[in-house]
Amino acid sequence: MAQNFPDTRAAAQAQLAAFLPQAGEDYARWRNHHDRDGMPTTSRLSPAIRRRLISEAEVCAAVTAHHGAEVAAKFIDEVCWRSYWVGWLQGRPEIWQRWRDDVASLTATLATDADLAARHAAALAGRTGIDCFDAWAAELATTGWLHNHARMNFASIWVFTLGLPWQLGAELFWRRLLDACPASNTLSWRWVAGLHTPGKTYLADAETIRAMSGGRFALTAPLATVATVPPDDGNPAPVMIAAPDRVDDDARTGLLIMSSDYSLETLALPRLAAVAAPATVSADLSPRRAAYGEAARADALARAALRAGIAPDRLDNDRLTEATRVWAARHRLAQIVTADAPIGPIAARLDRLAPALAADGVRLVRLRRAWDDLAWAHADKGFFGFRKAIPALLALPVGAVSLS
Fold first, then answer.
1. Angle 131-143/148-156 helices, nearest 10 degrees?
2. What is the SS3 assignment for 307-332?
3. Residues 76, 59: Cα–Cα separation, whole Å
4. Do strands 363-367 and 313-315 pair parallel, antiparallel, or not at all (unpaired)?
5. Rounded distance, CA 28 to CA 241, Å?
6. Residue 285: pLDDT band by 50, 70, 90 thresholds?
7. Which of 88, 263, 232, 83 is nearest to 166 (CA)?
8. Average pLDDT over every residue of 141-147
9. Cα angle 306-307-313, degrees, rounded to a multiple of 5
10. Could you read off the pLDDT of 179-193 as tens digits, one per residue?
11. How far apart are CA 372 and CA 148, in angstroms?
12. Cβ atoms of residues 321 and 356 within 8 Å
């Protein structure tokens, strides 16, 4: 089956336009099927939406205009699931840090526990003897993508049939999926394992997998019939989410483009004196994910520089804080505008950058889209409560920025 993951804004817009006829009743009927007569049943836009080459608001506005919100409700729900996950984690950053700490600890354990290391290696290589799992492992390594139904069943088999730590499975997805998101990846694995909604697990079922994959898999190897929830410290109480920053329209401004938002130039910005982005993406990702990220970043930087009418700068990714300080001084910047990255590696880098810039008299302004501000405020409990906010999200202007 052909895979097409647009890595520029223009390509994402074209792919959305081509998919629009399928985003209504067809999507509602076929979305859980892995393919339909060899053709994709989903938009393949998730890597672009993850980096906001095209935004959730743009996608939902387009499908609503084409089908109406009621007919396109299932597609809109799926787009909004990521916003829900991001908002839920934004209020519980401890979950992200726990996962990172667990991965570090379990990685060390792999060096001393031969049995765990062997089972883990077999799962990574797709040598478990479970035909669907092994095929998905190969597809993930080759394409950097899996259908959502395949992801859920892969995670379930990883945890309950193979008895592997969910944290290491989430780490595999984090490094290889083109659309890997700190929130949706971490929390989806926790949901499957019965940790997000305590005690509610997702147990892979052979008949369902056969049906949704069009009979592609024989599934002769037995799957777990009992889901034993792994140990966990539980979900922490939510913390208050910080208010968004406000831009000073009169300050000399630079635009710093990070992978949390690759269409910042479409928003209302002050006059820009400089535009920059890291010269490379993170080195600890799969080659395919890194290559996709490089192409998307180059497109974002070129578009922003074109809008500003200036040559772009590329900053040393390994020394980003110091490189940004030098860049700000060279262009005599009073403020640097960037996207308000949600919990994850980019947010952590911005947290380190802000005080360093402040020491130089430069403000780091994290621009938050109104979509995020509204979505995060309603993501404190379950998705079905969050869904009540979707009409208000759809009513927002596509490029609205939060000023509250």
1. 120
2. HHCCCCEEECHHHHHHHHHHHHHHCC
3. 8
4. unpaired
5. 34
6. confident
7. 232
8. 96
9. 55
10. 999 999 999 999 999
11. 23
12. yes
β-partners of residue 364 are: 336
CA 296, CA 290: separation in Å to the nearest integer?
A: 10
Q: What angle do CA 237, 238, 244 make, to 5 degrees?
A: 165
Contact 367, 264 (CB under 8 A): yes
3-state secondary structure of 99: helix
- In angstroms, the CA 98 to CA 78 distance is 27
* Residue 145 token pair: 């993508």
How high is the pLDDT of residue 400?
87
Amino acid at 244: P
User: How many angstroms separate the CA atoms of 75 and 61, rounded?
Assistant: 12
The separation between CA 6 and the C-alpha centre of its own chain, rounded to angstroms, equals 15
Encoded tokens for 200: 């509610």
Q: Are 271 and 253 in contact (CB under 8 A)?
A: yes
Q: How far apart are CA 257 and CA 305, in angstroms?
A: 11
CB distance 45 to 6 below 8 Å = yes
Q: What is the DSSP letter of 152?
A: H
pLDDT at 2 over 50: no
Mean pLDDT of 129-141: 98
Distances (CA, A) of 242 to 212, 348, 375: 42, 14, 14
Domains belonging to the chain, first-starting first, are 1-91+369-404 (1.25.40), 99-212 (1.10.579.10), 253-367 (3.40.50.620)
* Tokens coding 302: 């070129």
| Tokens describing residue 160 | 């309950």
Give the angle 391-396-399 at the CA atoms, nearest 5°: 145
What is d(CA 163, CA 185) in angstroms, rounded to the nearest whole number? 19
- CB neighbours of residue 73 within 10 Å: 18
| Residues composing the chain | 404
Q: Residue 47 pLDDT more than 80?
A: yes
The encoded tokens of residue 234 equal: 């539980």
| β-strands 253-256, 313-315 pairing | unpaired
| Predicted local distance difference test score (pLDDT) of residue 3 | 58
Residue 275: beta bridge partners? Answer: 255
Could you tell me which residues come within 8 angstroms of residue 355 by beta carbon, excluding any fewer than 6 positions away? none
Per-residue pLDDT at 281: 76
